[in-house]
Amino acid sequence: MSWPEPSRRALLGFLVTLLPGCALTPLHGPGLGERVNPMLAAIEIDAPRNRLGQILANELRRELNPAGLDRPPLHLLVVRLDREKSPLAVQLDDVTTRFDLTLAARFDLVRKADGHVLYRSAVRRVASYNVVRAPYATLVAEQDAERRAAK
Length: 151
Hints:
By secondary structure, the protein is α+β, with helices and mostly antiparallel strands. The chain contains four helices and four strands. The longest helix is centred in the last third of the chain and has 16 residues.
């Protein structure tokens, strides 16, 4: 059953008038952002000391502290990474032409004052890349997949 066009327009108009009154507000925006941004800026990132860990740590710092506030760290975000690649496309002659790169991150948010774990969770991302005849191009594609997964 389809609604007549005037009824759909009226419903859409009504819903649009309700949107400004909804409880959704940007996290880093005015109002809430003024209270939340200093708390997020006080999180220190502890990621693996390798290329992939550095990419992840830089992304987290950029997302958690977009204003670049200078706060003493009150919390520590401890991140552990597991990286796995698996063949996705294999030709009839057993040559792999595409890989899935899976990046799993387990993390704990720890209060620095007493070492109490406030929050623990995990996230997993998959990024794919093609294998080509040029080894350097394949290496760059794999590194790009790592960067995309870390983001």
